[in-house]
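FYI - complex with zinc ion, inputs then prediction.
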Amino acid sequence: MKKLTFIIIAIFTFVFNSCSPSVEGETKNWDRNLNQLLKLKTDFPAYEDFINEKISDAETIYKSADNISDEDKKAKEMRKANNILSSGCIGDLKNMSSKIDDLNKKKREIEKTIKNKNNSKNDVVYIMTLVENCKNAIKKAEKVLNKKTSDLDTNPCKKIERAFKGLQTTYTETDNAISDFKKAHKEIDEKEKKKEEAAKGLKCEYCGTKNKSTAVKCKSCGANL
Ligand SMILES: [Zn+2]
């Protein structure tokens, strides 16, 4: 019984700790976030000043947490600092490249559906629009990523967030269209298969005579079909 109580307490402590911030956890997050941002600066030199600014904002909060003696309050303040380095447009900037890759893959996937022989004219037009939308969203995101500091908007955060949202919306739109096309084509394919089978007629298992597809009994030997 004692052992069981101990295990239950251990599980509760684990769950509790993984939800609420701890000083130890936030210190680790801080180091990890700073490292990621250093890499981000080398990947996107245009954003160096912008990233430095975010780091300095976060540092002010992170350092002020040093003066808080209450562990819970201290951890919460540290988490606030960490959020500046990991969420919002910084988070979008971190994930932008992988989102571009994802959308590129979706674009290729939708491009393939254009070859389907069951496409109507409208389908083809729609697919081509979707491919264009993918290209535009990717172009916009790449433009935002590669801008020179001097050309950067007064509010780069807004630009990043808009480009990122554009990638996300286009991805969802394309993905939905692909599954709709797949479903529609499956239905058409199945109908055609049934038609073909009906045209072939039914072959009797016993004597091999070809019967009409609607026949119940073989016209030659009378066996059930
Ligand atoms: Zn027969």
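Residues 204, 206-207, 209, 218, 220-221, 223 surround zinc ion (CB under 6 Å). Residues 95-189 form one domain.
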